[in-house]
Amino acid sequence: MEECRYCLQVIPIGSTTCPKCGKPTHSQFNQQVPGANPNLIPCPKCGSFVSPDARACPSCGHDVGAPKRAKFWLIAFILFAVALAIGQWFNYQAHLISGR
Ligand SMILES: [Zn+2]
Ligand SMILES: [Zn+2]
Question: Which of these, 36, 62, 35, lies nearest to 47 by C-alpha position?
Fold first, then answer.
């Protein structure tokens, strides 16, 4: 189910214009978008195509990019922490050797 972005009237599936205010619907807007950017991902809630960099769908505000991003930053953080730990360990070993 889709809502008009101008008057929030519920629009029947397959309709290209809002029955209340006559403005074009999301699906008509988004028909041209995928060709322009093949990396766009469809919003699971409203079907609008969203930039992979966007955290939320611009049409309905549904979170689309956030989980992917969060995972990426989590992995980056873990890698950073591991690199830091290894660096500390080498530092400690070097300190032990130079200390004698
Ligand atoms: Zn409308
Ligand atoms: Zn959406």
Answer: 62
